[in-house]
Amino acid sequence: MGFEGFIWTLLVIQGIIVGSFSGFVAREKGRAPVSWFINGFLFSIIGLIAICGVPSVTHNSEKSEINRSRERPEVERRRGLF
After folding, report:
1. What is the pLDDT of residues 33-51, one digit of tens each?
2. What are the sequence ranges of the domains in the chain?
3. Which residue of 15, 36, 45, 69 has the lowest C-beta tally within 10 Å?
4. What secondary structure letter does DSSP report for 56?
């Protein structure tokens, strides 16, 4: 194993480490961890930055609560909430 083999070994180890971090972040955000592991493995730090920028997955009930909290006060007054 020469210098070239050493470089390839380092690249694979680095890909596994960054891919693992990407998969972990994806799982915490409710995304597909295997897909994001592959993304992190192939694209390195760019893949990790990408998953950090992607919003978390929310359920429909959480989305409706978020949307209701963002409505204007006039809409809430019409509903009789105030």
Report:
1. 999 999 999 999 999 999 9
2. 3-79
3. 69
4. P
